[in-house]
Design brief:
The chain is of the alpha/beta class. It is built from 16 helices and 13 strands. Helix content is 46%, strand content 14%. The C terminus is likely disordered.
C-alpha cells in the first residue's frame, strides 16, 4: 500500500470537559513542535458553557478544534453514546495514527472505546489514578479507559503501581508527570496579571475558595443545605469565595437561594481567574481532583470534601487533607487549618512543567509504530 510522507503523522487529541483542556494543552504544544506530527483537537462538547470550554481553549493557546461533536448534557448513557458514535465517525473518516484521551470524564471513556473498536491506537493521559470507589462514575471511566489503551501515561508513581497490580504490561506504561502542572506553571504570570484577587475586593491569604460540583454531594438537598451552613459560618471568620458550577447553582436555587447569604457567589471562573484566586487563597475547599493537584503545586492548604481520593500523592507529599463527607468534620478541619501556618509541601517528582514534552515523545512513538499499518490492525 502507498504510504503517506513521513511528515504527516495524524494524532487527534480529545477534549470535552474543562479539566481536559488544561491537561491536553502541554501535550498538544509539544506534539506540534515535532517535525513529523500533525496534532488536532476533537471537542466532544461535553462542556459547552463559555467559561467551561471556549475561554479555556483561548487562554491555553489551543487552536480551534478540527472536529466538534456537540453532545451537550444528558445522562451518563446519553453522553457516552453520543461521544462513542461521534468519535467513531471521525476516526473512520480521518484514520488517525493515534488518539489521545485525558482524565476520567465520559468523553474520555467513550472516545477510548471508539478507538479500540476501530483499531486506532489510543493513549490515556493521566492513567492509573484510582480512588477504589466504584460509586464514582469517574472510577469506572478510568478503569475502562486504561483497560483498552495502548499507552498509559502516568502522572505519579502510585498510578504506575496501580496499573502493575491490575496486570497492565509494563511496556505499555510511561511515568511522565503531571501535564496539568505544566499548564499551571506556564500561565501563573498571566493569571496574576488579571488582578482577580483585587478585583473581587480580596486580600491575598485572607479568604477561602470553594469549588463543589459532584452529583453525589450537590443532589442531596439536606446535605447541601448543611454544607452551606458550614460555609456561612466560615464566612463569619474570613470571606468565602464560591465560583459556582452550573449544576451546583441549579440545586441551590431550587432549594433556597438565600442559603448563599454571606458568601461571595461568583459565576464559573475562567482558567486564569481561577488559578489567580487559588494561588492567593488561605484555604481551598473542593471536591475536584485537579484542584487537589494545583493547590499542592502552589503550596495552598486544601480540604477535599470527599471520602476517597484518586490522588493520594497530594495528601502524602502535597497540601491536601481528605476530610470525608461529614459537614461537622469539615467545620472542624477549617478551624484547625486556619490556626496553622500555611503548609510547605515537598516537591512531587516530575511535577516540574516538562510532563507534556515527555508525554509527547511516547505518543509520537506510538503513532510512528502504527504509521502505515493496515486499517483495523493493532
Amino acid at each position: 500500500m502507498a504510504l503517506r510522507p513521513v511528515t504527516s503523522l495524524n494524532i487527534i487529541l480529545v477534549v470535552g470537559a474543562r479539566p481536559n483542556f488544561v491537561k491536553v494543552a502541554p501535550l498538544f504544544h509539544a506534539l506540534a513542535e515535532l517535525d513529523d506530527v500533525r496534532p488536532s483537537l476533537l471537542h466532544t462538547g461535553q462542556h459547552y458553557d463559555w467559561a467551561l470550554s471556549q475561554s479555556f481553549i483561548e487562554q491555553l493557546g489551543l487552536p480551534e478544534p478540527k472536529d466538534y461533536l456537540n453532545v451537550g448534557s444528558g445522562t451518563h448513557a446519553e453522553q457516552t453514546a453520543g461521544v462513542l458514535v461521534g468519535v467513531e465517525r471521525v476516526l473512520l473518516e480521518r484514520r488517525p495514527d493515534a488518539l489521545v484521551v485525558a482524565g476520567d470524564v465520559n468523553s474520555t471513556m467513550a472516545a477510548a472505546l471508539a478507538a479500540a473498536k476501530t483499531g486506532t491506537p489510543v493513549a490515556h493521559l493521566e492513567s492509573g489514578l484510582r480512588s477504589h470507589d466504584w460509586t464514582m462514575p469517574e472510577e469506572v471511566n478510568r478503569a475502562v479507559t486504561d483497560r483498552v489503551a495502548d499507552l498509559l501515561l502516568c502522572p505519579s508513581q502510585d498510578a504506575v503501581d496501580n496499573l502493575v497490580l491490575e496486570g497492565a504490561g509494563e511496556d505499555l506504561i510511561a511515568l511522565v508527570g503531571n501535564t496539568m502542572i505544566d499548564s499551571l506553571l506556564r500561565l501563573l504570570p498571566a493569571a496574576r496579571a488579571t488582578a482577580a484577587v483585587a478585583a473581587h475586593g480580596l486580600e491575598p491569604g485572607g479568604y477561602a475558595l470553594v469549588t463543589l460540583h459532584r452529583p453525589a454531594l450537590v443532589d442531596d438537598p439536606a446535605h447541601l443545605g448543611t454544607l452551606l451552613e458550614v460555609l456561612r459560618d466560615l464566612a463569619a471568620r474570613l470571606p468565602v469565595v464560591f465560583p459556582i458550577h452550573p449544576r451546583t447553582r441549579a440545586r441551590i436555587e431550587a432549594r433556597d437561594p438565600r442559603s448563599l447569604e454571606g458568601i461571595t457567589a461568583l459565576p464559573p471562573a475562567d482558567y486564569l481567574e481561577f488559578i489567580a484566586l487559588e494561588e492567593s487563597a488561605r484555604l481551598v475547599i473542593t471536591d475536584s481532583g485537579g484542584v487537589q493537584e494545583e493547590t499542592s503545586a502552589l503550596g495552598v492548604a486544601c480540604l477535599t470534601y470527599r471520602d476517597t481520593t484518586e490522588r493520594p500523592i497530594t495528601v502524602e507529599l502535597g497540601t491536601n487533607t481528605l476530610v470525608g463527607l461529614d459537614p461537622a468534620e469539615l467545620a472542624r478541619a477549617c478551624g484547625a487549618r486556619l490556626e496553622e501556618q500555611p503548609p510547605s509541601p515537598a516537591a512531587i517528582p516530575l511535577w516540574d512543567g516538562e510532563a507534556g514534552a515527555r508525554a509527547a515523545e511516547h505518543v509520537a512513538a506510538l503513532a510512528r509504530r502504527a504509521y502505515g499499518a493496515p486499517a483495523g490492525s493493532r
